[in-house]
Amino acid sequence: MNDSLIRKFCETGYRWPIVATATLLIGLVTLLPLADDYSERSEACSVLTEELDRARQKVEALPKFEERVAALSTELTALESRAVTAERVGDFRSRIIELARESNCQLRRIDIGTPNSRIWTKEGDVLSTQSVPKSAKNKTPFQIVRRSMVLAVDGEIADLKNLIAKFQEENTLAHPARLSMSSSGRASDRIAMEVELWVYDLTRKKS
């Protein structure tokens, strides 16, 4: 019976289309999983290639990034060295006394007030004494700390000018808020001078 069916199949004129169709179906059954696998691998390869390109770009940009970080660190260190922190207040006071003596001025009084702090804002005015509203949108995570130092000395006018010049050469974060002069009453050539300096520090706000 099977031989008869095979013989009839071979004698029919449709045997080649049937064979071709069967071969095509077998091929599709084999190729479709391979195509899916190829598609997945191709997509994975593209993703990895993109990641590799990004990694390569990061590596190439790393030296410039490191240079920028180094430059910013240098700038930050220079700025920090100018700030009058709580730990440096005593040293700053000693330095002012030393400058007065170097300028041949006689020290009468030096007082340092308690610190005042306020929130620092972007593009803010460091000399402002106004508090920052809670609703301000340009606030930073830092606060500016200001201390007032009042120095009273007397000396000849040339010596006082020399002392003021030395203040400016110190390159400290300080601002002369007030300066007054009057006769010292001790000698006609001596002048009494009182200077109020505002000295600053920038600290991160406590959470």
Task: Write the SSE topology.
Layout (H helix, E strand, L loop, with lengths): L1 H10 L3 H68 L6 H14 L3 E7 L3 E6 L17 E17 L1 H13 L4 E10 L7 E14 L3
Antiparallel strand pairs: 1-3, 2-3, 3-5, 4-5
Keywords: Membrane, Transmembrane, Transmembrane helix
Description:
It is a single chain. The chain is α+β, with helices and mostly antiparallel strands and about 210 residues long. It has two domains: about 1-80; about 90-205, Alpha-Beta Plaits (2-Layer Sandwich), CATH 3.30.70. It is about 50% helix and about 25% strand. It is built from four helices and five strands, in the order H-H-H-E-E-E-H-E-E. The protein has helices at about 1-10, 15-80, 90-100, 155-170, and strands at about 105-110, 115-120, 140-155, 175-185, 190-205. A hairpin with a 7-residue loop joins strand 4 and strand 5. It starts with a helix and ends with a strand. Keywords: Membrane, Transmembrane, Transmembrane helix.
Given this structure, which CATH class of the largest domain is correct?
Answer: Alpha Beta
Number of strands: 5
Number of domains: 2
Ends distance: 93 Å
* Relative helix content: 40-55%
Under CATH, the homologous superfamily of the largest domain reads: Ribosomal protein S6/Translation elongation factor EF1B
Number of helices: 4
**What fold name goes in the CATH topology slot of the largest domain?**
Alpha-Beta Plaits
**What are the secondary-structure elements, in order, as H or E?**
HHHEEEHEE
Quickly give the CATH architecture of the largest domain.
2-Layer Sandwich
Main beta-sheet annotation: 5 strands, antiparallel
Overall pLDDT, averaged? 77
Uncertain segments of ≥5 residues (pLDDT<50)?
14-22, 24-32
Strand content: 25-35%
**Mass-distribution shape:** elongated
